[in-house]
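ESCALATION

Customer reports they have been waiting on this structure for their group meeting. Please prioritize. Original submission:
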Amino acid sequence: MEGGGEMEQESVLYHGSQQIVEFPEIRMARFNKDFYFGFYCTLFPEQAKRWAGRFGKGVVNEYIYVPNRNLKVLSFPDMTEEWLDFIVACRLGKAHSYDIVEGPMANDTIFNYVQNFADGKISREAFWALARFKRPTHQISFHTVNALSTLTFVKGYEVGHEE
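Update from on-call: job pushed to the front of the queue and completed.
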């Protein structure tokens, strides 16, 4: 599933953290994330390892994800106009009604472009010119208790900070 895409079958997902997270939860944070407040995972273990190692040593948590067709899911297979508008709205604090949202992640570089666009410092055209050559990543966020129930903890393992 290159660059994301709706996950309609059982998959292994990874979450990078400071600790083992056997029971995922949604935490309100100081800053809004790409898809608003939620529990974030990825299909890519290397990406979870980077998330876990942000502050030194961390833990990569592994889960089995079993889709539930009764949940409201929004999927962005690629960076699109709709994806950009959705991320800007979420980062500005606008809540949504989806149980699960999946799509590319605005990594640090792309986040700066998104922020500059949201702040009116660059145009939509300038955003796409800058973001076009960045390799997208993957994230899937869980926003409700029903969404979290699609995850089953498998294991957690410690990873070190890589220079």
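Sent to customer with the following note: The chain has one domain: 11-159.
Escalation resolved.
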